[in-house]
Amino acid sequence: MKARTLLSKFLLTTMTVAVSLYMIPCIMAADVENCDLCHKYSGLGRIDESGKKHLYYVNEVLCQQSVHRKIRCKECHSDIEKYPHSNLKKVDCATVCHLVDPSTDKKFSHANMIEGYELSVHGKGPEDNLKPHPEDLPTCTYCHENRIYQPVSGLADDHRGVAQEILDRCLGCHEDEEWTRFFYDHFTHRLHQRRSSERMVELCASCHEDEELMELHGLIVTGTFHDTFHWQAIKYGDPNAPNCITCHAPVGYSSHEIMPSDDPRSAIHKDNLVRTCSNQGGLQTCHPNATTAFAQGRVHPTRYKTGVFETKMRSFQSLFANPVTEELTGLEYYQHLILQLIKYFYMILIGGLISFMILHQLLDYFATRREIEKGGLH
Ligand code: HEC
Ligand code: HEC
Ligand code: HEC
Ligand code: HEC
Ligand code: HEC
Ligand code: HEC
To answer: Does the beta carbon of 121 lie inside 6 Å of ligand 3?
Structure first.
């Protein structure tokens, strides 16, 4: 009770919390439930016992443009009955809302997605047999906030914004602008990748580069991705560069159904790798001529040493020291050797080149001085 009064002290204090406002899913301006009576105040927030800031402000304008704009607050926050509301449950994304899917005439919810997601590697496992540390797994809201519609302006690129010319065409037949605009947004929003590849890597890496967390789950950390050509290509904005989802949920897979590599349904199961690398039928051009041998290369190079996962390739190591003798197959050892040889070749080449250049400059310097002393040069 005491904590509660303490908390309510913090209530309604104006805070400048620099969080994106559309983090909070929401609804229409004509707020029939009157939630905006209080939630329209940008200062509505509190600081909890652990010092964490909560912002309860809901921006109506942004709400109006978001993917959930047709859903009423209480359809998601179904347990709000009194003010102040106490002990609200987390929103369940499987809740059925008033929308009807026009393709099936069934009441709409994300239940089918959740079902698929629960079977993926990020699922928590069956109720009676939860995976160890289920709290480490990403939840729906970890990856998704209430997105603002970001329609593409031209179908050929991913430039954000409405192409008035295209909308004008729709309006030529459909006279109600609001209606038409809604469907225009609905479709075009989905015609491009919503998260940039860099942001996607950041999202997955927020867990998969956390050494402690990954060790707990017996997984390698994927930090070496930043050493790869794939990452360089992303950084330089190559539209064909793969991010985490491109390979782990390629064409024909749902983004939610990532499976571990030993599952035959997984895109990275050894039998499916050629298809994943070649990405036939996908929007991106990857390695159309990929062969089985090609697909064997390690995407996330790592070395396993006495129980500790090493995430950074060491800059220098003995040519024949096999860091993972007990882990590498004959072929992998051979590949490792070739890689090391190439590395040595370049190290010697570059080292030699720089040394000779320095030597050349020095000799040149002394020669010039000698000439000056001899009086030959002025
Ligand atoms: C009379 C003012 C008032 C109205 C009306 C109101 N709220 Fe709130 N709401 C608050 C305050 C104050 C808080 C923050 C304190 C708290 O946790 O109770 C809050 C917090 C919340 C939270 C966050 C709770 C948490 O602990 O995370 C949700 C969700 C919420 N409101 C939803 C709604 C919805 C949906 C409606 C409309 C059906 C609504 N509110 C109407 C005042 C109001
Ligand atoms: C599509 C479902 C959905 C709708 C519609 C929705 N919310 Fe939420 N809301 C969520 C989810 C999910 C969260 C994250 C917390 C959780 O999981 O319970 C949340 C969180 C909040 C919070 C707390 C933010 C925090 O930091 O804890 C407030 C306040 C809130 N919503 C208010 C509203 C109001 C007011 C409306 C109507 C204008 C609304 N919501 C409509 C799903 C929804
Ligand atoms: C690990 C991150 C992650 C988690 C967790 C996750 N999703 Fe997704 N979700 C994605 C990605 C990636 C996409 C593909 C579209 C994109 O890039 O936004 C997607 C797409 C979607 C879409 C389609 C959106 C659209 O506009 O086309 C819905 C709906 C969705 N997810 C719902 C859920 C629900 C419900 C959950 C909880 C069971 C969930 N997601 C959990 C990453 C995630
Ligand atoms: C040449 C006229 C014309 C143009 C241009 C046009 N539409 Fe339509 N649209 C129609 C007609 C007629 C129907 C009903 C057809 C039917 O039911 O088979 C329709 C149906 C629809 C529907 C389905 C509505 C429902 O509830 O079944 C949507 C959504 C839609 N149009 C959106 C758009 C968008 C967005 C654009 C612009 C990109 C557009 N239309 C351009 C004539 C047009
Ligand atoms: C070019 C395709 C590709 C990209 C991009 C990619 N992966 Fe992978 N990933 C694979 C393949 C193939 C494997 C199987 C093992 C291997 O080859 O290293 C794998 C394995 C994994 C594993 C399992 C490791 C284990 O212990 O079994 C995780 C976790 C993982 N990737 C996460 C990620 C994350 C996070 C990203 C983004 C930073 C990412 N992957 C980007 C293809 C890819
Ligand atoms: C909130 C943390 C979190 C986020 C975000 C996350 N993961 Fe995971 N991921 C995990 C955990 C924990 C596991 C281990 C699950 C288990 O033990 O069954 C895992 C397992 C995996 C595996 C299976 C490895 C194997 O072979 O067993 C892959 C592949 C993977 N994640 C890819 C991704 C990709 C791609 C993304 C981004 C879209 C992502 N993860 C985002 C926490 C996360």
So the answer is: no
Residues lining ligand 4, Cβ inside 6 A:
102, 166, 169-170, 172-174, 180, 183-184
Read off the tokens for 132.
């160890």
What are 249's two structure tokens?
Answer: 């949920």
- CA–CA separation, 122 and 139 (whole Å): 9
Give me the residue spans of the domains in the chain: 195-313, 318-374
DSSP conformation class of 314: P
Q: Which two tokens stand for residue 177?
A: 């602008």
Which listed ligand is nearest to 91 at the C-alpha? 2
Question: Cα separation of 184 and 178, whole Å?
Answer: 10
Residue 333, Cα to own-chain centre: how many angstroms? 32
Residue 290: how many CA atoms within 13 Å on its side-chain side?
Answer: 19
Tens of pLDDT, residue by residue, the chain (378 residues): 444 444 444 443 333 333 333 344 444 444 568 898 899 999 999 898 999 999 999 998 888 889 998 899 999 999 988 888 888 899 999 999 999 999 999 999 999 999 999 999 999 999 899 999 999 999 999 999 888 888 887 766 667 777 888 899 999 999 999 999 999 989 888 888 878 899 999 999 999 999 999 999 988 888 888 888 899 999 998 888 999 999 999 998 999 999 999 999 999 999 999 999 999 888 888 998 999 888 887 888 765 443 444 444 444 455 555 454 445 667 777 877 888 888 889 999 999 999 999 999 999 999 999 999 887 655
222 lines ligand 5 (CB under 6 A): yes
Two structure tokens written together for 77: 């926050």
Which structure tokens are listed for 213? 């967390």
> What is the rounded distance in angstroms from the CA atom of residue 137 to the CA atom of residue 10?
31
Q: Answer yes or no: is the C-beta of 162 below 6 A from any ligand 6 atom.
A: no
Residue found by looking up tokens 């439930």 in the block: 33
Alpha-carbon dihedral angle through residues 233, 234, 239, 244, given to the nearest 10 degrees? 120
Residue 136 is given by DSSP the state: G
Per-residue H/E/C for 50-82: CCCEEECCCCHHHHHCECCCCCCHHHHCCCCCC
